[in-house]
């Protein structure tokens, strides 16, 4: 049926989620086919320019790096016929400064390029590259004269996925085990230059100061309190049958920074009570990712994941919720998230009693001047008199140093890149440190020579010096100790206090809706952890949380009013309603028939996951409407057919998850169903989002055997914008799973809900 109705759409659904472009999943990501056509036309000319660059620029630079590379020659440079493709572009205009334009490009490159080089009779080469990731492009500042944009800043939000096919002697890197290591090394190389917080900034206007564009002050800090989890899936088993308890731990990640929690042994309801802090450089853009694993001696088993939008945490300031885990059958995770703003206020620098950070130090490492060639060229400021007998070693000592910098605050040390063979190295990097006590802590700097691992100079800066400046900033040259008398290092130090601001009382909090699903990059797991690439929408009943909230709703007969006050004490998960209407009499007592739907509402909601194909129903049941068709309002609880005979009730929880861009329908259960035969009924629930009545878009619960009061607790999602959902009608039917040739009545009852009349953001739970 799917192929007959829409062959193209059915084929697209058969693709893995990570192969679908971003514009399929998100309505604010635009297709740019015109730009891809421009790239196809310009690619041969770009290849010619790159071939010339490799020969005239890159080859001389490689030869100058080392004596062993003097014979380096590119023998073949061909960039192939396949050019990079942009799967979608998202433009930000509301959440950013008015003097900039921010674009997110979903880049995919599956290239047939071929590059070969000879080094001392050895042939090395690459004969294919695959690369895809999200590249952010920031155009700022916008100017009133040509070229209208001052500079372009480029960086990847996360590590791009990379695969390389090697050729020649380097083909050894394709050996299993080695290929993962080689690709990850190159990924780390790219990350050190192109992944946040690292950026590439290209000035387009002369005399443009790009220092503040390359190293902007971070947006804020997210403090994550990893508290506990419950009802995690059992992963450990013995002899393949007997289930045991798991040993869960959590991996928390923002950008390239990742922390691992402690492991809780043999517990499916672990309690961690740990705190982690992350620097957030780009919002919107960066998200908090949490993955749970079961620690095993051989391979750690995946237990579920969570993706939380930091935009909502920034707006809510504090989020303390139970989040349902995705990509698993059960489990909830309790997190408390605090958004800490960076403020220039010394009064906020009081020490935290719990030992948490109170400030952040940003170090902009610029350059150094007149470094000594070796660590004993100068001793206490005077030229050393040590004689070297080995002439070969003496020549090595006379070279300019290849220097890097170690920066330390407290017990955290960070290392800069290495500048080769220069007495005046320029690093141009930024580093961030969490500060617990600005009055007592210091920044320790040590410049070392890579080849001899010896110190070329040190410096200590007390952070209390920053407090003397009203802006808590120092931008100057610092004299190096244990070095030459005219050796300096140039840095800019910025200290900012961490402050939790009061949330806006008028704003509706996102709460548990801060968790979201979307196309994620392939996540490389180190060591014995597994790799997974595409998100899966959780369609599994979260048993504990929903059941607890719904059990608190009192049972009633079909004619009684439903009192929802008792449910307020239960914790509210994502599938339940945060606030139920307590006074139903205030609402319109009954709804009219659903209004005519516009033609545009027939658009198929795009699902980001592959749907499983089920056995098709009979042709007659596809086109036929049941005789018992009713309208349900939020207050009209008594449902009757034409003969005033009640057919039973169904309990539903409906809300719109704005972060996921989806309508969430939770089918809780039915009661007092009317049997259609003497042998009993096997009820299940079928859901359509009208006017879309295609079989491929229908949702269906499991079948409950021989019961008139089935309990389902199953969740379904329709991925559609809120504007379109408000034009739609939910069509929900309770059906009897009967034998194919049976003459029994299939329909047990039906309900229609006009979504244009409901407050979907607030949601509702109703019999």
UniProtKB/TrEMBL annotation:
Bias-annotated ranges (Polar residues): 526-537
Chief subcellular location: membrane
Comp. bias regions, Basic and acidic residues: 553-566
GO cellular component, one term: plasma membrane
InterPro entries: C2_dom, C2_domain_sf, C2C_KIAA1228, Ext_Synaptotagmin_C2A, Ext_Synaptotagmin_C2B, Extended_Synaptotagmin, SMP_LBD, Synaptotagmin_SMP
SMART domains per the UniProt record, alphabetical: C2
Keywords from the UniProt entry: Calcium, Cell membrane, Endoplasmic reticulum, Lipid transport, Lipid-binding, Membrane, Metal-binding, Repeat, Transmembrane, Transmembrane helix, Transport
Molecular function terms from GO: calcium ion binding; calcium-dependent phospholipid binding; phosphatidylcholine binding; phosphatidylethanolamine binding; phosphatidylinositol binding
Residue ranges of every copy of the C2 domain listed in the record: 196-323, 341-482, 646-767
Annotated SMP-LTD domain residues: 28-205
Entry's localization field: Cell membrane; Endoplasmic reticulum membrane
Membrane topology: Peripheral membrane protein; Multi-pass membrane protein
Any one biological process term the GO annotation gives: lipid transport
Region span, Disordered: 523-602
Matching Pfam families: C2, SMP_LBD
Similarity field: Belongs to the extended synaptotagmin family.
Protein's recorded name: Extended synaptotagmin-3
Lineage: Eukaryota, Metazoa, Chordata, Craniata, Vertebrata
Recorded name of the encoding gene: Esyt3
């Amino acid at each position: 049926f799917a192929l007959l109705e829409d062959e193209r759409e059915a084929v697209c659904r058969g693709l893995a989620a990570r192969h679908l472009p971003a514009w399929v999943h998100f309505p604010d990501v635009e297709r740019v086919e015109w730009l891809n056509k421009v790239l196809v036309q310009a690619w041969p000319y770009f290849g010619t320019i790159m071939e010339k660059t490799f020969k005239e620029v890159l080859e001389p630079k490689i030869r100058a790096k080392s004596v062993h590379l003097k014979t380096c020659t590119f023998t073949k440079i061909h960039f192939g016929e396949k050019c990079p493709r942009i799967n979608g572009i998202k433009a930000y205009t509301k959440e950013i400064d008015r003097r900039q334009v921010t674009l997110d490009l979903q880049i995919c490159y599956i290239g047939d390029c071929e590059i070969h080089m000879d080094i001392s009779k050895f042939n090395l080469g690459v004969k294919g590259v695959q690369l895809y990731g999200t590249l952010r492009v920031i155009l700022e500042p916008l100017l009133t004269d040509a070229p209208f944009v001052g500079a372009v800043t480029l960086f990847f939000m996360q590590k791009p996925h990379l695969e390389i096919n090697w050729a020649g002697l380097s083909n050894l890197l394709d050996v299993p085990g080695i290929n993962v290591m080689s690709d990850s090394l190159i990924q780390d190389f790219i990350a050190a230059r192109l992944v946040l917080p690292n950026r590439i900034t290209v000035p387009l206007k002369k005399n443009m100061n790009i220092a503040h564009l390359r190293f902007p002050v971070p947006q804020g800090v997210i403090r994550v309190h990893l508290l506990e989890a419950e009802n995690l899936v059992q992963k450990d088993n013995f002899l393949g049958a007997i289930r045991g308890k798991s040993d869960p731990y959590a991996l928390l990640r923002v950008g390239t920074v990742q922390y691992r929690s402690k492991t809780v042994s043999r517990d499916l309801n672990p309690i961690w009570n740990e705190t982690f802090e992350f620097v957030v450089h780009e919002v919107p853009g960066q998200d908090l990712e949490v993955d749970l694993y079961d620690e095993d001696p051989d391979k750690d088993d995946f237990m579920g994941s969570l993706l939380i939008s930091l935009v909502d945490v920034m707006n809510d300031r504090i989020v303390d919720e139970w989040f349902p885990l995705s990509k698993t059958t059960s489990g909830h995770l309790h997190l408390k998230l605090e958004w800490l703003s960076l403020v220039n206020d010394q009064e906020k620098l009081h020490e935290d009693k719990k030992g948490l950070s109170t400030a952040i130090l940003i170090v902009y490492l610029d350059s150094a001047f007149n470094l000594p060639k070796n660590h004993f060229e100068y001793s206490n400021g005077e030229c050393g008199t040590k004689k070297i007998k080995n002439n070969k070693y003496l020549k090595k000592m006379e070279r300019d140093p290849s220097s890097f910098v170690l920066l330390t605050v407290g017990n955290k040390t960070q290392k800069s890149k290495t500048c080769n063979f220069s007495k005046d190295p320029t690093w141009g990097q930024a580093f961030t440190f969490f500060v617990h006590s600005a009055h007592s802590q210091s920044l320790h700097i040590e410049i070392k020579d890579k080849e001899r691992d010896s110190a070329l100079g040190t410096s200590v800066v007390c952070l209390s010096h920053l407090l003397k400046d009203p802006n808590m900033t120092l931008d100057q040259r610092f004299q190096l100790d244990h070095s030459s008398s005219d050796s300096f290092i140039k840095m800019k130090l910025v200290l900012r206090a961490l402050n939790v601001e009061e949330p806006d009382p008028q704003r509706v909090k996102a709460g548990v809706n801060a968790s979201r699903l979307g196309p994620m990059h392939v996540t490389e797991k180190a060591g014995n952890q597994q790799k997974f690439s595409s998100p899966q929408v959780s369609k599994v009943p979260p048993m504990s949380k929903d059941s607890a909230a719904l059990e608190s709703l009192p049972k009633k007969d079909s004619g009684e009013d439903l009192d929802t006050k008792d449910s307020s004490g239960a914790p509210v998960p994502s599938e339940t309603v945060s606030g139920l209407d307590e006074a139903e009499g205030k609402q319109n007592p009954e709804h009219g028939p659903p209004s005519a739907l516009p033609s545009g509402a027939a658009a198929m909601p795009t699902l980001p996951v592959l749907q499983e194909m089920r056995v098709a129903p009979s042709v007659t049941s596809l086109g036929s409407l049941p005789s018992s068709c009713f309208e349900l309002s939020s207050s009209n609880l008594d449902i009757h057919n034409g003969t005033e005979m009640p057919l039973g009730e169904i309990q539903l929880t409906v809300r719109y998850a704005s972060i996921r861009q989806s309508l969430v329908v939770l089918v809780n259960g039915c009661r007092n169903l009317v049997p259609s035969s003497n042998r009993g009924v096997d009820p299940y629930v079928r859901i359509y989002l009208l006017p879309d009545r295609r079989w491929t878009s229908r949702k269906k619960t499991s079948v409950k055997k021989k019961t008139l009061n089935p309990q389902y607790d199953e969740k379904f999602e329709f991925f559609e914008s809120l504007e379109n959902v408000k034009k739609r009608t939910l069509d929900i039917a309770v059906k009897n799973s009967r034998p194919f040739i049976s003459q029994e009545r299939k329909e047990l009852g039906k309900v229609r809900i006009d979504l244009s009349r409901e407050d979907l953001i607030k949601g509702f739970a109703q019999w």
